[in-house]
């Protein structure tokens, strides 16, 4: 694998986060998986030790270092520790930046310090029972009524849906029904008419609460409108490059772990008088996945560098999401196959790697949606042929 460029500070941060996971998260995971939800206390603990939201400015309680590699470390370590369903990054880096990107100073002051400390847990709610990939098909609506808005509708599959104290909710706000005219609202725990439905039972990622949310005539003060009314769809699209980069780091780290688990297993397990690792099929499978992992890692690290430089495009992030999510599924699948029957047993780690992986190619934009984005770009009339580019 090519060298990776983490700073000394980031390497120390990695060691510290690994220790945090070992002492504060790993021991509770089985209980949380059975409960279908992580204790709120986990967010507090992470907040206390400076691992929850590292990027906000010091005045909001963060480290003030926007280098994405800190989050990459957090994402990777969670995957390596097999606690990817302690998905703190959703709170920290997927939803948190909505406040600084689109919110007012007053909103940042009101929410960010509590988010950094873990007192206020965040979620983002776009998906509805009838609208997932096609967000413009959503039915939730909000109408202006004097000094507030009135929100109606429902959302589903919302991560942190039960734990969340503040949910960024997208709703249509154009009385003339322009499907892209949406507004983002900060809906807070306890607002009248805001109710939670079931914490949904899932194939994998079991400790992550994924829930239904209902909004019945919820009065939202204007101070809780995020950014400009009507621009919600554009805001959601703007966040997607970062969201897909976050995803890519996690999918790849999980794939790396599947490879390691498989490598250990095939050297131990014997069949026909020799280790599984001695069969050429095993060697070729491991070589194939190892190569794809190393190539993908270089691309993802380049994407992180581009993101830090403000140069990551939505299309390049889509490529990272597509390749890494497919690779997460493949690495887990190859791993289960090479584990034989053991791979189907809960007591072997590869089994959960497989069920946890399956969502990767679906959420945060399915593989098909990624291909639409990429093909639109590379088949566009103004596509620049590779051999005419200046690098
Ligand atoms: C565990 C989990 C956590 C989630 N967390 C959140 C969250 O926090 N917030 C949130 O808002 N949402 C969340 N989601 C929702 C998730 O983003 C959606 O499930 C996803 O966008 C797909 O939408 P859908 O399920 O409605 O599938 P659909 O849109 O019905 O698509 C089904 C399938 O059809 C195919 N397809 C769709 N469109 C096309 C097309 N144009 N061309 C070709 N094929 C196509 C794809 O194979 C796709 O997988 C979560 C989902 C899960 C399972």
Strand portion, in percent? 15-25%
Radius of gyration, taken over Cα atoms and rounded to an integer in Å: 22 Å
Q: What structural class do you assign from the helix and strand content?
A: alpha+beta
CATH superfamily of the largest domain: Butyryl-CoA Dehydrogenase, subunit A, domain 3
Which regions are unreliable across 5 or more consecutive residues at pLDDT < 50?
none
Counting structural domains, the number is: 3
Strand numbers in spatial order across the main sheet: 1-4-5-8
What are the SSEs and their pairings?
Elements: H1 8-25, H2 29-35, H3 40-48, H4 69-80, H5 88-95, H6 97-102, H7 105-117, E1 122-125, E2 141-145, E3 148-159, E4 166-172, E5 182-188, E6 194-199, E7 210-221, E8 225-226, H8 232-268, E9 270-271, E10 274-275, H9 280-308, H10 314-339, H11 349-357, H12 367-378
Parallel strand pairs: 1-4
Antiparallel strand pairs: 2-3, 3-7, 4-5, 5-8, 6-7, 9-10
Helix pairs in contact: 1-4, 4-8, 8-9, 8-10, 8-11, 9-10, 10-11, 10-12
The structure holds flavin-adenine dinucleotide.
Cofactor: FAD
Protein name: Butyryl-CoA dehydrogenase
Domain Acyl-CoA dehydrogenase/oxidase C-terminal: 230-377
């Amino acid at each position: 694998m090519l060298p990776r460029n983490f700073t000394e500070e980031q390497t120390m941060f990695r060691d510290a986060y690994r220790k945090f996971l070992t002492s504060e998260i790993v021991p509770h995971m089985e209980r949380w998986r059975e409960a279908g939800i992580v204790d709120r206390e986990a967010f507090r603990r992470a907040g206390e030790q400076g691992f929850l939201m590292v990027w906000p400015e010091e005045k909001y309680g963060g480290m003030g270092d926007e280098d994405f590699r800190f989050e990459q470390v957090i994402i990777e370590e969670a995957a390596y520790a097999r606690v990817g369903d302690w998905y703190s990054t959703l709170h920290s880096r997927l939803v948190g930046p909505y406040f600084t990107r689109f919110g007012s100073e007053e909103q940042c002051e009101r929410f960010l310090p509590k988010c950094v400390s873990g007192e206020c847990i965040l979620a983002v709610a776009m998906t509805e029972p009838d609208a997932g990939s096609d967000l413009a098909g959503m039915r939730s609506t909000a109408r202006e009524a004097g000094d507030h808005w009135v929100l109606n509708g429902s959302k589903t599959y919302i991560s942190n849906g039960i734990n969340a104290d503040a949910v960024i909710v997208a709703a249509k706000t154009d009385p003339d029904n322009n499907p892209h005219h949406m507004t983002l609202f900060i809906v807070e725990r306890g607002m009248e008419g805001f109710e939670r439905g079931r914490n949904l039972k899932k194939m994998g990622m079991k400790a992550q609460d994924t829930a239904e949310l209902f909004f019945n005539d919820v009065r939202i003060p204007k101070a809780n409108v995020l950014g400009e009314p009507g621009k919600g769809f554009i805001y959601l699209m703007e966040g997607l490059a970062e969201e897909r980069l976050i995803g890519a780091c996690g999918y790849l780290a999980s794939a790396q772990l599947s490879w390691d688990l498989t490598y250990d297993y095939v050297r131990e397990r014997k069949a026909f008088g020799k280790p599984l690792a001695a069969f050429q099929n095993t060697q070729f499978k491991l070589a194939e996945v190892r190569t794809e992992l190393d190539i993908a890692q270089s691309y993802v690290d380049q994407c992180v560098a581009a993101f830090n430089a403000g140069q990551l495009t939505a299309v390049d992030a889509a490529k990272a999401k597509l390749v890494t999510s497919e690779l997460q599924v493949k690495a887990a699948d190859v791993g289960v196959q090479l584990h034989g029957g053991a791979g189907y047993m809960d007591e072997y780690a590869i089994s959960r790697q497989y069920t946890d992986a399956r969502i990767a190619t679906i959420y945060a934009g399915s593989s098909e949606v990624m291909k639409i984005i990429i093909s639109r770009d590379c088949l566009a009339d103004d596509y620049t042929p590779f051999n005419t580019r200046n690098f």
